[in-house]
Write a structure and sequence with these properties.
0% strand; mainly alpha; elongated; 59% helix
């Protein structure tokens, strides 16, 4: 990307270019070429200038909102989560303010994934794992505050949640249980074995239904709890 050209462009021009490029790439189509072709280096400077040179904070937020309502959540969160260079504190603050509605909508998408039984095709580009790199501590806290009452009311179990942290799409990540990220939602000290499904078989899990993913996660979690019960930690 020619940074001189970006530096000469207006906020509106950069926003328009980012939307046009993203729409052409179609980041939510199956080939995922958006992620493999290094488009972050092209799009991030455009987003940064569009947001940081907007006439007002409200206009900057509208640029972000218009983009992801046209192109979806996947592209913009992926780009903003992977800046190709250091960003000043002032610009980081502008980006955070401009993404207020985006951050809320991402949290809503994560909650929907955590609490709704959907097929893998339905979950493909709108699951908690989609947004792991974008979620920060503040967003995890907001998500946890909404999930904890459901756990307390037993309308959802830790095993149900753990199922959503098993990778099913990336070949290099297939069937990986993202323990560190799961602990951001359910801290280890809170883990309870009776919250995870029992499994008395040794068969391989060949399907990717949430029920099977819950069993897969339980196969990983239960030995951890047996080796180091949360009550003995601290």
């Amino acid at each position: 990307m020619n940074n001189d050209l970006v530096a000469e462009a207006t906020s509106a021009q950069c926003a328009s270019a980012a939307t046009a490029i993203t729409t052409h790439l179609d980041p939510e189509e199956p080939s995922l070429r958006f992620f493999s072709w290094g488009w972050v280096r092209v799009l991030h400077p455009l987003f940064l200038r569009a947001i940081c040179t907007a006439a007002t904070p409200t206009e900057a937020e509208q640029i972000v909102t218009n983009h992801y309502r046209t192109c979806g959540l996947v592209a913009i969160t992926h780009v903003l989560a992977h800046p190709p260079y250091a960003i000043s504190a002032d610009n980081r603050a502008k980006i955070k303010h401009a993404t207020t509605t985006l951050r809320k909508d991402v949290c809503d998408a994560v909650i929907r994934d955590l609490t709704t039984n959907r097929t893998q095709d339905q979950r493909r580009m709108s699951q908690v794992l989609t947004f792991l790199d974008y979620l920060d501590d503040e967003m995890w806290t907001q998500i946890r505050e909404r999930i904890d009452p459901m756990l307390d009311a037993r309308t959802i179990t830790q095993g149900d949640l753990a199922a959503r942290f098993v990778s099913t799409f990336s070949e290099e990540d297939i069937n990986k249980f993202h323990r560190d990220e799961f602990e951001k939602l359910v801290p280890f000290a809170s883990w309870r074995s009776d919250q995870f499904p029992e499994d008395d078989t040794s068969s391989l899990l060949e399907d990717t239904t949430l029920e099977s993913l819950a069993i897969y996660a339980a196969r990983i979690v239960r030995p951890i709890l047996e080796a180091q019960p949360p009550e003995t930690t601290g």
